[in-house]
């Protein structure tokens, strides 16, 4: 794939790529792929050899540093798959009692999240085959690309389970509704003026907020707070499971709400439940807890477009890390309120305001400008401070709408997490075939019970679903 981010043999890393390679970050993505049938090692190797992944220059390049310490991509002379594929034949759990496959895989991923980084004497990816658990784990350095790029590249090598001739379908690959364009044309000039002034105001407020967070403003300490050095602490990992249909039902209960609004309403409600359980009567009502969300800034392409452009080596295809960060505040409230949908309503108001700002673009441009002028050390420190001054991070990646096959084997789940950050709580969501799985990675000495936290999130959505169903019946 070509782009401004990287094309060929001696291409410098983009500023976000250099940020992710800095020792303060060294961020690696773990994608767990559950399989229905036993893993066929030969089939996987054969598929990899002809895959779009290995034809991509990033996955066949080394990271080298020039005399000034600036990182470059250098084309590798050969790819030895045996150095990239790690096979574990025995169950991976170290627990004294037998555990289910999901728990065993999560334990393995939790250990990986604080393990050593990827070796730089080979391209920055690995594939771990957990034979006893029918699971493949891709380890991909974040310098290779962001979640949207990497997911698209992976899915371009997959096929629909119900039709092996077709690529998977992604929601953002669908054509936009032309009827929704130019909706402001019938509004009066004063409405447009108020909207413009509102946008300017929120931009100013949110940009100043972002700068202050990167320097000194931080959240009050709670039972989920991390901080400087917490990225080195041991981890636990649990999975919260949702039905996409439930989220869609809840979404309809509030006009113009989105799935992301529902997601953040669930997080707000779930964290309030968890904190009330851990610290009853200890937190003031309305206490702000700030999250950090990663936002993809590129215009999304459908998988067919992506696959065609990959095969033609089109230079117009945007690849790499093009994302921004936005601050998402939630507020602690006791969970005995009469209407669970109030969390969704608050989330929608907050996210709508963030959408009217350029905070995400500002954060991206900040990385682009500080890296060449202030260097990787200062850029990494500023962004590390933002993590230390907030309480959690979250990402949300759109997956395929139907079941897929990888190397001829039906995929049962797709889950993503990453190596650790100063946050004691990081959450990564991926949708797949009508389901949504949230990986909840925690510093276990701060949050010892991530399974209970996952249950808080699941119950929050079910309560919202019940309230939405009740409202629909009454209307």
Automatic annotation (TrEMBL):
It catalyses: a long chain fatty alcohol + a fatty acyl-CoA = a long-chain alcohol wax ester + CoA; an acyl-CoA + a 1,2-diacyl-sn-glycerol = a triacyl-sn-glycerol + CoA. It comes from the Eukaryota. It is found in: Cell membrane; Endoplasmic reticulum membrane. The keyword Membrane applies. Pfam families: WS_DGAT_C, WS_DGAT_cat. GO terms for cellular component: endoplasmic reticulum membrane; plasma membrane. Keywords: Acyltransferase, Endoplasmic reticulum, Membrane, Transferase, Transmembrane, Transmembrane helix. Pathway: Lipid metabolism; Glycerolipid metabolism; triacylglycerol biosynthesis. Residues 57-262 form the O-acyltransferase WSD1-like N-terminal domain. GO terms for molecular function: diacylglycerol O-acyltransferase activity; long-chain-alcohol O-fatty-acyltransferase activity. It is a single-pass membrane protein. Residues 319-465 form the O-acyltransferase WSD1 C-terminal domain. GO terms for biological process: triglyceride biosynthetic process. Its main location: membrane. The chain crosses the membrane at residues 189-211. In the N-terminal section; belongs to the long-chain O-acyltransferase family. This is O-acyltransferase WSD1. It comes from Prunus yedoensis var. nudiflora.
């Amino acid at each position: 794939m070509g782009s401004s981010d990287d094309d060929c043999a001696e291409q410098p890393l983009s500023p976000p790529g250099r940020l992710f390679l800095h020792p303060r970050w060294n961020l690696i993505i773990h994608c767990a792929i559950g399989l229905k049938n036993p893993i066929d090692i030969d089939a996987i190797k054969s598929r990899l050899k002809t895959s779009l992944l290995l034809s991509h220059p990033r996955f066949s390049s080394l990271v080298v540093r020039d005399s000034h310490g600036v990182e470059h991509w250098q084309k590798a002379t050969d790819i030895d798959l045996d150095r990239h594929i790690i096979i574990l034949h025995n169950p991976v759990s170290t627990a004294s009692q037998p555990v289910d496959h999901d728990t065993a895989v999560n334990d393995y991923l939790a250990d990986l999240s604080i393990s050593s980084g990827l070796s730089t004497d080979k391209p920055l990816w690995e594939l771990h085959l957990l034979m006893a658990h029918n699971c493949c784990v891709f380890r991909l350095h974040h310098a290779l690309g962001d979640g949207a790029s990497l997911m698209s590249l992976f899915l371009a090598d997959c096929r629909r389970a119900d039709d092996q001739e077709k690529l998977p379908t992604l929601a953002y690959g669908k054509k936009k509704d032309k009827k929704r364009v130019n909706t402001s044309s019938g509004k009066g000039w004063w409405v447009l003026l108020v909207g413009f002034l509102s946008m300017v105001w929120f931009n100013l407020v949110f940009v100043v907020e972002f700068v202050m967070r990167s320097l000194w403003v931080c959240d009050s300490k709670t039972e989920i707070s991390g901080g400087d050095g917490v990225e080195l602490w041991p981890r636990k990992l649990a999975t919260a499971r949702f039905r996409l249909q439930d989220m869609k039902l809840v979404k309809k209960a509030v006009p113009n709400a989105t799935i992301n609004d529902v997601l953040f309403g669930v997080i707000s409600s779930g964290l309030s439940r968890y904190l009330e359980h851990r610290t009853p009567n200890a937190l003031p009502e309305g206490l702000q807890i700030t999250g950090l969300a990663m936002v993809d800034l590129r215009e999304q392409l459908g998988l067919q477009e992506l696959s065609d452009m990959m095969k033609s080596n089109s230079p117009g295809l945007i690849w790499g890390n093009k994302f921004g960060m936005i601050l998402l505040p939630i507020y602690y409230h006791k969970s005995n309120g009469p209407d669970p949908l109030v969390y969704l309503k608050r989330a929608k108001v907050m996210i709508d305001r963030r959408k009217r700002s350029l905070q995400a673009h500002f954060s991206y441009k900040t990385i682009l400008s500080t890296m060449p002028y202030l260097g990787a050390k200062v850029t990494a420190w500023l962004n590390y401070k933002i993590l230390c001054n907030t309480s959690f991070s979250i990402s949300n990646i759109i997956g395929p709408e139907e079941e897929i096959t990888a190397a001829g084997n039906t995929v049962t789940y797709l889950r993503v997490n990453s190596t650790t950050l100063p946050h004691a709580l990081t959450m990564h969501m991926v949708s797949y075939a009508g389901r949504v799985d949230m990986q909840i990675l925690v510093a276990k000495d701060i949050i010892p019970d991530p399974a209970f936290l996952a249950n808080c999130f699941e119950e929050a959505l079910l309560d919202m679903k019940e309230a939405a169903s009740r409202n629909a019946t009454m209307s």
